[in-house]
Sequence to fold (269 residues):
Amino acid sequence: MTAAVQDQALEGVRVREAVLEAIDVTVAFGDTVVLDKLCLEVVRGEILGFVGASGSGKSVLMRTILGLNPMQSGRIELFGRDAFSRSDEERNEIDVKTGVLFQHGALFSSLTVKENIQIPMREYLDLPRPLMDELARLKLELVGLPRSAGDKYPAQLSGGMIKRAGLARALALDPEIVFLDEPTSGLDPIGAAEFDELVANLRDTMGLTVYMVTHDLDSLYSICDRVAVLGEKRVLVAGTIDELLAFDHPWVQSYFHGKRARAIPRNRS
Ligand SMILES: Nc1ncnc2c1ncn2[C@@H]1O[C@H](COP(=O)(O)OP(=O)(O)OP(=O)(O)O)[C@@H](O)[C@H]1O
Fold:
């Protein structure tokens, strides 16, 4: 194999590297099965949008992947290895490479933004305070917040600033994958578009992999490389928007071709 062919082959491997794999994941609460042998793959460097009807189990899956919710059967792999059959030390390695932005930011109201951003640093890193302060400032800059926001309390921030502060905390440990739970909900269309742009920039500059639960069709069209649809307790389909537009399933058809969706394809860049 020539060096060029080898490079190409390596590039191919990198492009297809699965950062996250859910294999036959089943989750139930009592007799109610919410996810039934669900399979999903998230590839390094992609922005995957995750959609599904209200109550279909999007949050349950995200919580299960993060180890916050037990599964009845199946396997979840993060970074190529079983996410849960691990020692505490190995699990910490996964946690450090994983950032999460919960739906409403989930910032501690009694802590300043800077202190919120430093929570993961305190938990996983042993750094002197001046260095943590500098890192927090860098994270604020990364998400487009002014330095002064670091000394504010969450109640003093706008909804858009809270999302950015939550994202800064999710990025505190320089993760390889971030989970975003409805990051643009509650934002006005301009704020939502700016947030989308920020996420796309972070992916491009940091090589982040992004798993984004969303109901926001604009986000799906503007920044997602692929979209996975949850329905009937499993992933019905995962693919590009064009693949989903052509996918013959009533919920998928009405989601992407319904009244609210109609205006968007015309605006696709
Ligand atoms: N801890 C729990 N105990 C019992 N049932 C639960 C629990 N957590 C979630 N559920 C149920 O699981 C189902 C899926 O809920 P989930 O919150 O994942 O939906 P979702 O797709 O995220 O909805 P939405 O888009 O409205 O946020 C719901 O029927 C919910 O009531």
Q: What stands out?
A: The chain has a mean pLDDT of 87. Residues 29, 34, 52, 54-60 surround adenosine-5'-triphosphate (CB under 6 Å). The chain is about 40% helix and 25% strand. Strands lie at 18-29, 32-43, 47-52, 73-78, 81-82, 98-101, 177-181, 209-213, 226-231, 234-239.
